[in-house]
Amino acid sequence: MNKTTIPSIDSIDRQWYLVDAENQTLGRLATEVASVLRGKNKPSFTPHLDTGDFVVIINADKIIVSGNKAQQKLYRRHSGRPGGMKVETFQALKERLPERIVEKAIKGMLPHNALGRQLFRKLKVYRGSAHPHAAQNPKAFNLDSAALSK
User: Fold this and answer.
1) Phi, psi angles (nearest 5°) of residue 76
2) Per-residue b or e along 110-119, where b marks 16 or more CB atoms closer than 10 Å to that residue's CB
3) Which residue, of 10, 15, 115, 125, has the greatest Cβ tally within 10 A?
4) Contact, 119 vs 38, CB < 8 A?
5) Burial tier of 102 (Cβ tally within 10 Å: 0-12, 13-18, 19+)
6) For the segment 83-98, what is each residue's pLDDT rounded down to a tens digit?
7) Angle (nearest 5°) at CA 15 between 10 and 21
8) Domains of the chain: which residue ranges?
């Protein structure tokens, strides 16, 4: 009888990946990155453990969306006070905080529990091409070849 093995925390090998978001579609980028954050690309994937890798996303200001989403897609946030709802379009938020667009799309694809919050901490998003994680030697992650291999 075969037994299912659960990887120990020490045996999980975490890699750092660098993703260039320039001219990438928001949803397609988010699904691939969420999969890597969860560790679904590894044979040791376990649904209730953090087996994923770190992901650094650069050029978040150059992300694209299809159709009329740039003018019609809305982002809402609430201050917690009465009348504190703020609504902003995709285009306005992209000019102000393009990192938040990518973060929100990926966070919505992670589990909505303590594990999802832990996985989200391994995501680093930057507006331009400069990032402070050069010491970790992140490997380039090509989204086009990742989608073709499935």
Assistant:
1) -115, 145
2) beeeeebeeb
3) 125
4) yes
5) buried
6) 999 999 999 999 999 9
7) 150
8) 15-64+99-142
Task: Output phi, psi for 86, to 5 deg.
Answer: -115, 135
State residue 139 phi and psi, 5-degree precision. -85, 145
CATH classification code of 15-64+99-142: 3.90.1180.10
pLDDT digits (tens, 9 = 90+) for 53-69: 999 999 999 999 999 99
Report whether 115 contacts 48 (CB < 8 A): yes
Indicate the pLDDT class of residue 72, thresholds 50, 70 and 90.
very high
